[in-house]
Amino acid sequence: MKEIIDIDKKSSFITFILGKESFAVNVDQVLEIIQLEKLTEIPNASEYIRGVLNFRGSIVPVINLHKRFGFKASGACNIAVIVNLSAEGSDRLIGLTVEEVTDVVQFDYKSIRAVPEVGINIDHEYLEGIVEISKEFVFVLNMNKAFDTSELSKLEHPDFIATSTKTEESEEQPG
Amino acid sequence: MDEYINSFIDETREMLLALEEDLLNLEKGGDEDEIIQNVFRTMHTLKGAARMYGFENMESLTHEFETLYDQIRNRQIALSDEIIDTTLRGKDVLAGMLENKESGKQEKEIIESVERYLTQGQEKPVKAPVNKDSESSSFLILLSPDKSVFERGLDPNKILDELKEMGRHKIIIHEPEQSWDAQKANKICETSWEIYLQGKHKLEEVKDVFLFYDEEEYTVLDADVPSSFSEAFIRSFFQKNYREAVDIERHTLENFRELADLRTDDGQMQRSTEVLVKEENTGSENQAAVRSKNSSNSTINVASKKIDDLMNLVSSLVSSTAELKVLAEVHKDYKLNNAIENIDKITKQFRNNALDLRLVPIGTLLNKFNRHVRDLSVELNKSVSVIIEGQETEIDKTILSAIEKPLLHIIRNSIDHGIESGEERIGKGKSEQGVLKITAFYTGANVVIQVQDDGRGFDLGKIKKTAIEKGYLEHDQQVSEKELLSFVMEPGFTTSDAISKVSGRGFGMDIVKKELNAVSGSIEIETEKDLGTFITLKLPATLSIIDTLMIGVGKSTLLLPLPEIEYCYQETWENIYSGENDYLKYHDMMLPFISLSSKFNSESDREKDEMVVVINKYDKKYGIIADRVIGEHQAVIKPLGELFINQPYFSGGSVMVDGELALMLDTNYLFSQLAMN
Fold first, then answer.
1. Which residues of A touch B675 (CB under 8 A)?
2. Are A61 and A49 spatial neighbours (Cβ–Cβ below 8 Å)?
3. Which of A145, B124, B269, B425 is 20 to 30 Å from B62 at the Cα level?
4. What is the mean pLDDT of residues A55-67?
5. Would an 8 Å CB–CB cutoff place B316 in contact with chain A?
6. C-beta of residue B53 within 8 angstroms of C-beta of residue B8
7. Domain boundaries of chain A, sorted by first residue
8. Taking CB atoms and an 8 Å limit, are B660 and A169 in contact across chains?
9. DSSP letters along B310-325, please?
10. Distance between CA atoms of B551 and B23, rounded to whole angstroms?
């Protein structure tokens, strides 16, 4: 965060839908909401990564949020929220695919409550907490935990380097 | 302040390089008087600068040399090869001091040698001093520093102190209402000076005192050439520097007269005169406007990060413009298209200009080699002359630093193994002195550097013998000269019987090749027995833009560096995949291959032919199997980012004309995969 958060001051959040749940991201971190048209897949990348896209001349990775939170994919998620994870001036951009961007809401950090111990399947580390907005529960994301580089940079097939081309090809050979 | 220290370091480094060149010329028998004068002046200037920036050890060392060369130029001490050698070593120590290197021992040795020369010289003066400079000369110096002079870490008073040491003088201080101390406290300098100086120094020496001042801030006029300065000139100088209140008319004539007195009447004039003129400060409003008019066309140092950022922006602009162009074509609007055409043109120019910023003349590196050649030829007792051509050829700074070591190695090899000893050369009917020629020039988007010697050439027979011993070749195998020479660049391949001190430094031709490949460069060797060796380095002029070939695999568009591609051809699915081994028949060889579609788990259509791209890297050939070849693409390669640090296949990505991304394949990694199998 750029400055120490004043927990009494209201901040704006963008809410979006994923599966049947609602999530919120601080508007300060959001750069743009775009339609996913041109996405370049990276072979053998982590299953959480859908690919990369060209955003204002930079290469930005796009994270599959359904996979990340263990949700079942429901149709095409062609909306991406581009967020900047970096606290200081530098850019660390990622895109998050969501089903629908719903609203911009305001609440203060004080009103964020702890996530219930049981009943929530998302890794608690990824969440800042829960907030109630118009009788609906909204998960507030802890961006830095949810999109930790070391975990996301793992390859889909960590053993693929060791697999020899020979065996891969023999499977494809006409039998 | 740091910034000024850095610029001091940069400037000093340049001066040291010039000094080195002077000394080498001196050894070669250049114009002795002039060069000695130069060396003296450089030492003197360095001393002043070192003092100003608190490099104390540097100050004391330059002081020693200054004294030594002062006596040499006065012919109290004879210049010897030993002295030049000591000075060269002294230059190295000085350069080390700039980087805070510990060199206490060497420094002491040098100072001791210099002091030895000095005492020897006193005992036995060489010739009666023929002092050509004994005639004194007079100067009018105008100094009007920029307001920000204190912020640059400079104190004009230091200049005055130095000038005072140079001879008899009269100083007129034009001080505004604010006192000097107040100006110093506020860090705003508004004082100007007129200095009349009489001494035995030359115009250049006086000018050297002002090393760290802009040309607009001072003027040194030779009073012996009265026509060179007039009242109008003096007034305009101060006016230009916004000190309009300077009351010149009142003083100038009077000072002219005094100056003349200084020259003729030696005994009676005071040694030092200072006049303080209080002024009213007016006319400071137009400063900024006038200042910008006076901007000089000198060079500036820019952090490379800033240029990288600019390059990124420019390449975004290039791809956005291309996108715009595609969109506009749909609309078929004549006016819109025209406007976009214009933007496109400007963008391209902009890109070229931005690329230009990274380029530096190759001479900055090549001239350094003069010294190495000299040291080496002394060490090996061979006489070698160096010819350098094409210093002005420009190349990306990153590439220039990357090729320094490889180039140095090539030069070492040439002198150590190529060029023969004096007797051997005479025996062969060659001139005793060997010639090493380094030439740089452009070919298309590439820069070529050629290193040529007239030595004995590579011993092909010996190479063949070693190649057979090492198992690269069969006994009766026929090989071309080119293939034989390529073995020289294999790791651990050496034909020399004993490892010499010069070339046996663990940096072989294989590393030369690797380092060149790292910057997309290539190397070629041609050799002729007893006539010499010709080594050609081909380098891209810039790393920012790479020529690539676009290929398609499944849904992905991938890029391969064009210079590494030898050939592309179609091959049937059966021919590729139905064999037992991963080899293809290509010309007369077995070509190992990597199939990208199986590597990336994408389906490949059995009915359709596949494309084979033959890569020729490190003189090893292998095939890459792709679904299709799309065409050429001039790529600005960008990093994929930290989420992909574990991804070995791709070295970056590039935005294509349609705004989509293509991934750059890492041919080094693909090659290593092949080697593993």
1. none
2. yes
3. B124
4. 85
5. yes
6. yes
7. 10-170
8. no
9. HHHHHHHHHHHHHHHH
10. 55
pLDDT band at residue B588 using 50, 70 and 90 as cut-offs: confident
- Cβ neighbours of B187 (radius 10 Å): 11
> What does the pLDDT read at residue B298?
60
Give the residue ranges of DSSP H helices in B245-362.
Answer: 248-264, 287-293, 304-331, 334-357
DSSP category for residue B642: G
Looking at chain B from residue 533 to 572, which residues have their Cβ under 8 Å from any Cβ of chain A?
554-557
Q: How far apart are CA B239 and CA B640, in angstroms?
A: 56
Q: In what order do the strands lie in the sheet with B218-222?
A: B218-222, B137-143, B192-199, B167-175, B272-278
CB contact under 8 A, A54 and B661: yes
d(CA A174, CA B656): 37
Tokens at B569, concatenated: 């051809």
- Contact yes or no for A81/A27 (Cβ under 8 A): no
| pLDDT tens-digit readout, B32-91 | 888 888 888 888 888 888 877 778 888 888 888 888 888 888 888 888 888 888 888 888
Residues in a beta bridge with A136: A133
Residues B122-134 pLDDT 10s: 665 444 443 444 4
Q: What is the mean pLDDT of residues B312-326?
A: 79
CA distance B556 to A39: 10
Interface test with A, best of B551, B578, B661, B669 (most A CBs within 10 A): B661
For the cut 50, the answer to whether the pLDDT of residue B369 exceeds it is: yes
Mean pLDDT over each residue of chain B, to the nearest integer? 77
Which position has the token pair 């060029």? B419
Helix or strand run (H / E) with residue B278:
strand B272-278
Residue type, B433: Q
CA distance A33 to A83: 9
**Cα of B193 to nearest chain A Cα, Å:** 46
Count Cβ neighbours within 10 Å for each residue of B537-566 and write b for 16 or more, e otherwise: bbbbbbbbbbbbbbbbbbebbbbbbebbbe
Q: Are strands A58-64 and A49-55 parallel, antiparallel or unpaired?
A: antiparallel
Helix (H, G, I), strand (E, B) or coil at B551: strand
Token pair belonging to B607: 């009915």
Residue B363 main-chain phi, psi, to 5 deg: -55, -30
- The string over B391-401, giving b where at least 16 C-beta atoms fall within 10 Å of a residue's C-beta and e elsewhere, is eebbbbbebbe
How far is it, in rounded angstroms, from Cα B418 to Cα A8? 79
Please compute the mean of the pLDDT values over residues B485-497 and round it to a whole number.
71
Q: What is the pLDDT, as a whole number, of residue B281?
A: 37
Which residue did the predictor score with more confidence, B182 or B223? B182
The residue behind tokens 């429901």 is A74
CB contact A164 to B (< 8 Å):
yes
Indicate if the pLDDT at residue B150 is higher than 50: yes
Share of chain B above pLDDT 90, in %: 5
For residue B88, the tally of other CB atoms under 10 A from its CB is 18
Q: Are strands B167-175 and B434-443 parallel, antiparallel or unpaired?
A: unpaired
- The distance of B617 to chain A (nearest Cα, Å) reads 20
Q: What is the CATH number of domain A10-170?
A: 2.40.50.180
Q: Report how far residue B271's alpha carbon sits from residue A20's, in angstroms, rounded to the nearest whole number.
A: 95
Query: Residues B234-258: pLDDT tens digits?
Result: 666 666 554 544 454 445 545 555 5
Residue B275 half-sphere exposure toward CB, CA atoms < 13 A: 18
SS3 A136: strand
For residue A49, which of B395, B447, B143, B640 has the smallest C-alpha distance?
B640
